[in-house]
Amino acid sequence: MRVRISGGRVIDPANDVDGRLDLFVADGRVAALGRAPDGFEADLVIDAANRVVCPGLVDLRAHLREPGHEHKATIASESRAAAHSGITTLCCPPTTLPPVDTPAVASLIMRRAEAAGLARVVPLGALTRGLDGEHLSEMAALKQAGCVGVSNDFHAVDNPLILSRAMEYAATFDLTVFINPQDPRLANNGTVHDGAVCSRLGLSGIPAAAETVAVASCLALVERIGVRTHFSLLSTARGAQMIARAQHDGMPVTADVSAHHLHLTENDVLDFDSQCHVMPPLRTLRDRDGLRQWLSRGTIAAICSDHQPHEADAKLAPFGETATGISALETLLPLSLRLVDDGVMTLNEMIASLTVRPARILGIEAGDLAPGRRADVCVFDPDHYWVLNRDRLVSRGHNTPFLDWELKGRVTHTLLAGIPVYALKPGD
Amino acid sequence: MDKRNLQLDDNGQLRHFLTIEGLKRQLLIDILDAAESFSSVTEQTVKKVPLLRGKTIVNLFFEASTRTRTTFELAAKRLSADVLNININASATSKGETLLDTQRNLEAMHCDMFVVRHAVSGAAHFIARHAAAHVSVINAGDGRHAHPTQAMLDMFTIRHHKGDFHRLRVAIVGDILHSRVARSQIHALSTLGVEEIRVIGPKTLIPPEAHTLGVHVHHDLRAGLRDIDVVIMLRLQHERMLGAFLPSEHEYFQLYGLTEAKLELAKPDAIIMHPGPINRGVEIDSAVADGPQSVILNQVAHGTAVRMAIMAKAMQRLPSPPARELH
Questions:
Q1: How far is Cα of residue B69 from the mean position of the Cα atoms in its chain?
Q2: What is the pLDDT of residues A187-207, one digit of tens each?
Q3: A88: helix, coil or strand?
Q4: Which residue in chain A has the smallest CA separation from B186?
Q5: A44 with A421: CB under 8 angstroms?
Q6: Cβ–Cβ of B144/A273 closer than 8 Å?
């Protein structure tokens, strides 16, 4: 299929492209930028006037719930939501049921994603078998099956000796270790940030130190082992500062932050709003501003959705008894665009944090539009205002604190390997 | 989510009583005044008024409690309401029914008010948020969050003994971190305009950033008791303590237990309160608990009248305020 995307502002931070250019796609690849290749005849022309054309977004963290929790969502349902949101690559954590600790589970996820054909899904493998924190997983096999890294998610590895060995073993196969930095003993089954709001509401708190202690102990191991390590979902300014120091010292570490941690704070939990029950918890305004600052400096390389769709009942209970997480694919781009309006970063930097930078962290071919590269493309109208309501959510999960928010920026077209997988209907 | 004050109806009247926080001073005074009126009811031969005749009140207790449940039951009966006591742990939820399903089933039976006690902070808010239009919810204690009726009976007791809130210095001593009573007392005392609220305890038992609640934090009981008018002692809530908070009850009593000698540092006419149950020799010495400055049993006695006032107010059935003016 040959597609011409004409008249849009093409922003491709990976190749320093930013200009009003036509983009030509043929046979799933970018054929040219600017001038049409000789003899190019489009099967489809997309008018991108007043729109931004960028690489398809790469989401570093999206729970798709399959296998094991299909009552919440499926790979097909969430791939569809991703396509509506301009996201062409989803990286899913290993916390499925069973966990991604065998090649069979990894293969199953990728096969289901291929069958849906709406987004590419790359799994993280389990760092330890069954995420038990005690036995190393068969990482070589997981890598061969397509896992792009290994992680124990929030199932912390309590024993530093085992974490050290797991990191060494991952390094053997050049696998990136993804760490969710939270010391479980300091977190102590808490539900919100250990601060003023937690004191007021009488909820159990998770101190900021639960993150910084975990970052510190992990960095000590990275320093010794040299394994490439990615810190997922930073929630504190201090944690980000520690990553900055480690990067300055030449350590191979990267980090991401969720879009909601860049907008919400502990104060949003007031009134026991279970839609704001997330892990790690929403922190202070100072943390939120600090995370924004470290994002603008590039210390935090990427913004992710941390998409966690739930069935309605999962949030229908007293705050502490509800499931954590936000259905977040569809707000990823609009919330990131809001950072541009807030002066945190330029449009180019924002797009880089959603495309080339996460692609590099995953070590995959994505996030850039150079001729010859796979044509994963997102076209969006940066000035389109819309209100997020339940009817508009494509994800099976309707659990979001952003319902009724007026958002700016709407995806109009998504191409996956040159195939249109989403087009905004007129009047939608 | 609707961020309006969940406790008030469209006319700004009290509908649910979930927390003291966010309620106006005049509303608290109305409740205290009404409780004065109801106090006389409990002294009559026929201890009943027909204010809530025909109404059904459900004591929905997800957490064991005899004393609080009994005072709510007594209060409801003295208002002539029909009362159901439901021990949830022994019934529906143990069979897997959700909290919301339990609530909806009871609403289908045309109940008018839920008195809720639950081990999880925010549970009463959750039930109120999903309550049918005709139902009121009273929080009888949720997790560490709030126990507003207990705080109101404490305020009633303070007013009874001290009259004016404005010039009072009040100390709350002990396990503030785990105490829903302390949180409600702090909001009530602030709203009623006391001069100073102090919280006293080791750092392990003081909530993070406690000063944002408008209190002064002391870790030395002796220093904290100086010039105090009201001392509220709290129980150590071992059942809520996950992890190490104290080395021993012995050391705790040495440092924070209220003895006659330490009490001498407070004002000579200081009153001693305790929401109960008290642990003698842990947070309070028997000589103090049973001493002349103790008003602990008065607190218990005031419980019914104050809860009658709150129930009546939430159902818009308050009697005319008495002539008495608050200072």
A1: 13
A2: 999 999 999 999 999 999 999
A3: strand
A4: A200
A5: no
A6: no
Q: Which of A185, A197, A201 to mutate to test the interface with B (most CBs of B within 10 A)?
A: A201
Q: Which of A64, A66, A126 is nearest to A94 (CA)?
A: A126
Ranges A116-120, B168-172, B234-238: which has the least confidence: B234-238
Which pLDDT belongs to residue B318?
60
- Asked casually if ipTM beats, i.e. exceeds, 0.90, the reply is no
CA distance A315 to B130: 13
pLDDT over 60 at B65, yes or no: yes
Residues 4-43 of B with CB under 8 A from A: 6, 21
In chain B, which residue's Cα lies nearest the Cα of A275? B1
Distance CA B148, CA B146 (A): 6
B220 C-beta neighbours (distance < 10 Å), count? 11
- Per-residue pLDDT tens digits for A281-295: 999 999 999 999 999
- What distance in Å separates residue B127's CA from the closest CA in chain A? 8
Q: Residue B140: which residues within 8 A CB-CB, separation 6 or more?
A: B59, B61, B65, B68, B69, B72, B115, B116, B117, B124, B147, B149
The pLDDT tens digits of the residues spanning A140-168 come to 999 999 999 999 999 989 999 999 999 99
Q: Rounded to an integer, what distance in angstroms lies between the CA atom of residue A246 and that of residue A248?
A: 5
Give the strands of the sheet with B56-61, arranged side by side: B82-87, B56-61, B113-118, B136-142
Chain A: residues touching B (Cβ < 8 Å): 188-189, 194-196, 198-205, 207, 271-273, 275, 313, 316-321, 401
DSSP string spanning B183-194? HHHHHHHHHTT-
Is cis: bond before B50, omega within 30 of 0? no
CA distances from A208 to A213, A238, A300 (A): 9, 8, 18
- Per CB-CB distance under 8 Å, the chain A contacts of B208 are 194-196, 198-199, 205, 207
Q: Which residues contact B317 (CB under 8 A, 6 or more apart)?
A: B51, B52, B79
B288's tokens: 């103090």
Tokens of A351: 């797009």
Question: Could you tell me the maximum CA-CA distance found in chain A, to the nearest angstrom?
Answer: 69
Mean pLDDT for all residues in chain B: 90
- Kindly determine whether residue A202 and residue B183, on different chains, have CB atoms separated by under 8 Å: yes
**Chain A partners within 8 Å of B213 (Cβ):** 199-200
Which residues in chain B (131-160) have CB-CB distances under 8 A to chain A? Answer: 142-146
The Cα–Cα gap between B229 and B268 comes to 8
Q: Using a CB-CB distance cutoff of 8 angstroms, which residues of chain A are in contact with residue B144?
A: 202-204
Count of CB atoms situated within 10 Å of the CB of A203: 28
Residue B98: pLDDT band (50, 70, 90) is confident
| Region B65-80 average pLDDT | 92
- The two tokens of residue B290 are 């049973």
Torsion of CA A317, A318, A323, A326, to 10 degrees: 100
Residue ranges in A261-315 assigned as alpha helix (H): 285-296
* Residue B172 DSSP SS3: strand
Quickly tell me which residue has 């977004």 as its tokens: A57
Is A428 catalytic? The answer is: no
Q: Is B273 exposed, middle or buried (0-12, 13-18, 19+ CB in 10 A)?
A: buried
What distance in Å separates the CA atoms of residue B179 and residue B202, rounded to the nearest whole number?
Answer: 14
Q: What is the three-class DSSP state of A400? A: coil
How far, in Å, CA of A228 to CA of A77, rounded? 32
CB proximity list for A185: less than 8 A, separation 6 or greater: none
Pairing of strands A377-387, A52-55: antiparallel
Q: Could you tell me which of A277, A178, A420 has the C-alpha nearest to residue B122?
A: A277
Q: What is the average per-residue pLDDT within A256-277?
A: 96
